[in-house]
Amino acid sequence: MIITIKLFASLRLGRFKVRVCEYPEGTTVGQVLDSLSITRQEMEIGIIFINGKRAEFASVLQADDTLAVFPPVAGG
Amino acid sequence: MKQELARLICQRAKNSRLAWSDQVKLMEETGFNLRIVEDQALAEGILPIRYQRNVHAISIDEQYRLFNSRVAVIGCGGLGGYVIEELARMGVGCITAWDYDYFEEHNLNRQLNAQFDNLGQSKVEAAARRVKKINPAVEFIGLPRKFEEQTGKDFLTGIQVVIDALDNITTRMMLADICRNLNIPLVHGAIGGWYGQVTTQFSGDNTLEQLYGKNQNTRGIEVDQGILSFVPAMVASLQVAEAIKILLGRGDLLRGKVMFINLLDMDIEIMELPSTQ
Asked: Which residues of chain A neighbour B205 with C-beta distances below 8 Å?
């Protein structure tokens, strides 16, 4: 199935802004992040959206979904 | 006595504008303090000249409403320095600010009030001096201490808008809880590297919990990325715009939405984050 992945802020560094990728049916958000070498530590992942709705590592992606991943930002 | 003050203000005003020098003379002549003179002038529809360029973006009535507003700023570092500056220049009448910290050399790249001659000095006290220089009619209550739950609650009672200019997730979450319990709108801003985010949480919303809830870490990308000078300036400005709109009941707010700002790619993304409570 085809998934559009959008990375934000520092997650783009050394990766990409937007990429359309093919993944097997039943792929979770966590598996997509693993494939991009984005560690599941809190320091790298802030908030995740699928088609504009909040999602979790365990959320299962559907064909044509858009996954958006933001890192945590907390400085002042 | 107030009637007499009003008469004198009208006498001194030219084209419904009051010069600073006349405001000071009125103070000296009548014995009323600066805030009473300013309050009376605005009540009479007479605008101190330092607010002249606020008109017609806001009305004199709205300027008066800002003068009678109380805003709290939690954190006087990168964001807080600019937030306080802009609130004071807008003419928000009372600003309460927290920060236990002191200026250090590594603050100089981005914190408005950090200067070589005040390194080692309290950030809150530097902010107080700055406000006095740019708008002495503003009442500035500086709290050079940590923001803690009980004292936080006590000092925030009666505040109309709180601005989150903190630098860690743990205290931000505590602040969000307190504001929710006290029914005070909270304007959140956070920065790191080239990036920032802004959102406004109202009573009943759990926006910050959604943003940070499961994050056990206390900090974010700023640990690796540092913070560049223009990022706090921009995010603080967005926060102040939100605060002013809340006080005036105008415009559209980032309620239930988070604005993610990326100044490296000049990307602004607004994501919906409706309350899940």
From this structure: none
Amino acid at B70: R
Tell me if B62 is assigned to some domain.
no
The 10s digit of each residue's pLDDT in B27-49 is 999 999 999 999 999 999 999 99
A75 vs B171: CA distance, rounded Å: 12
Say what percent of chain B tops pLDDT 70.
99
Stronger pLDDT, B2 or B247, i.e. the higher one: B247
The pLDDT of residue B215 is above 70: no
Q: Are B165 and B236 in contact (CB under 8 A)?
A: yes
CATH number (domain holding residue B148): 3.40.50.720
Classify each residue of B194-220 as buried b or exposed e, where b means 16 or more C-beta atoms within 10 Å of its C-beta. bbbbbbbbbeebbbbbbbbeebebbbb
Which tokens is B179 given? 């504001």
* Contact assignment for B217 to A42 by CB distance below 8 Å: yes
In this structure, the answer to whether residues B127 and B211 fall within a common structural domain is yes
DSSP for residue B78: H
> How high is the mean pLDDT of chain B?
96
What residues of A are in contact with residue B236 (Cβ under 8 Å)? Answer: none
Beta carbons of A54 and B273 less than 8 Å apart: yes
Amino acid B216: pLDDT: 66
* Res. B213: pLDDT tops 80: no
| Closest chain B residue to the Cα of A57, Cα to Cα | B214
Q: What is the pLDDT of chain A when averaged over all its residues?
A: 94
Domain count, chain B: 2
Chain B contact set for A71 (CB, 8 A): 220-221
Vertex B228 angle, CA B144 and A67, to 5°: 105
Q: Do A76 and B262 touch (CB under 8 A)?
A: no
Please give the residue range of the domain that contains residue B242. Answer: 69-272
On the question of a cis peptide bond just before residue B106, with omega within 30 degrees of 0, the verdict is no
